[in-house]
Amino acid sequence: MSSYSCCTPSSKEVVKIKKMAPLLKLVAEESRLKILCILSKKDHCVCELVEHTKYSQSLISHHLKDLKGARLVRSHKAGLRVYYSLNPLGVIVINSLLQIQNKP
Hints:
Largest sheet: 3 strands, antiparallel
Structural class: alpha+beta
Number of helices: 5
Low-confidence stretches: none
Number of domains: 1
CATH architecture: Orthogonal Bundle
Shape: elongated
Oligomer: single chain
CATH class: Mainly Alpha
Strand content: 5-15%
């Protein structure tokens, strides 16, 4: 039986997998994916995300907090509103996931 180096505890692949698993778990949730997709088009405030998704303000805010914690989303204040946009990692993640979805 052959041994796979990607399965050894000290391999670089295992380290990457351990870092990737929580990120994949986070973006596997449908409402978070919708938020990421919307933010991939342009910046939005929470009230606009509520309008586009029909989710509650508290649910949107909770998801944005989680997405910010994973460094997928960033925020900036403009007047009285806080606008959210994708970080570079968020752009990579959503573009990669949308490409996978479009594969035959």
